[in-house]
Amino acid sequence: MRDLFGTIAPKYDFITRVFSYGMDRGWKRMAVAGAALPARAVVLDLACGTGDFGKLAASHCSGAHVVAADLTEPMLRLAEIPDRACADAASLPFRTECFDAVFVGYGLRNFPRLATALEEVRRVLKPGGLLVTLDFFLPGRPSLQRIFLAYLYAQGAFWGLVLHRRARVYTYIPDSLRTFLPAEKFSLLLKKTGFADVTARQFLLGGIAVHWAKKSPPPCADIQ
Ligand SMILES: C[S@@+](CC[C@H](N)C(=O)[O-])C[C@H]1O[C@@H](n2cnc3c(N)ncnc32)[C@H](O)[C@@H]1O
User: Which atom of ligand 1 is nearest to the CA of 103?
Assistant: First the structure.
């Protein structure tokens, strides 16, 4: 992962626009607006890449403090977010219950231990805090899955050859997606991990989705 993302870091923003047909910024803006962050929110941009989500959150929320975390040092440097940590999503170097919101843009498919990463996100969120994710998903219908994957392979190989003279550089997107899950199953996984009020919006026939999920507060102790 580190080698791959270290290689593509300088071209990352361009390739994100290409693979999202220019819609990436709009999806991210909508995801941040839907989060309704409190003033002075403390926000984690996890798998931050070049830090799009964190910067958008800061521009939407007065006094927000953004922390960036990513496995890849060259990505973190490009993000230019002063408070940052080189870290694996499955083992976050933050104290329990310190963030109002965690944003993850196109990171979920890359986490080898997705369930553990979600538990970590839940741990570092304050009770009632929000997880917001944007990612590729497998469209629900098998015929659509095949077409979507084939299209992503062709597009990845083309841009890999053009930008790096290596066809396989961007085929990690369909490679990571092939064994991933549909957006509805991700909603179920969020609920299973202890998130409530899970909502999702799908785009490109389910090939892309934004999820919002709240860390359920602990049950009230009975007052005698
Ligand atoms: C496709 S980029 C996403 C960048 C950005 N969040 C965005 O919305 O465009 C995926 C990022 O996930 C990071 N990453 C991959 N595996 C990770 C892990 N286990 N923990 C933290 N970050 C990881 C990569 O280094 C890379 O910067």
Answer: 6
